[in-house]
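Students often ask why we bother encoding 3D structure as a string. The short answer is that it lets us treat folding as translation between two languages. Here is a chain of 76 residues written in the first language.
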Amino acid sequence: MADPVTMDEAQEREARIERMLAETRKFVEEGLKLQAEARKLNREASIAPWQATFAGFGAGAAIVGALVAVLKVFGP
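And here it is in the second language, the structure alphabet:
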């Protein structure tokens, strides 16, 4: 037959369960943070080609503007 559980044993078991639940919550929160970071990185990776494209357009416009200015200064 099973021995009866004393109050100290019951409190010890309850404390152990609470510690395990707290650790589980911590792991879940860490997992959620990692998922959010992964979503952010995926979003940034999908935007990166567009950023490069618009930066190229901006650089091209700057070069054209500089050429126009040089032609106005040194042109006929």
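Translate back mentally: DSSP finds one helix and no strands in the chain. Keep this in mind for the problem set.
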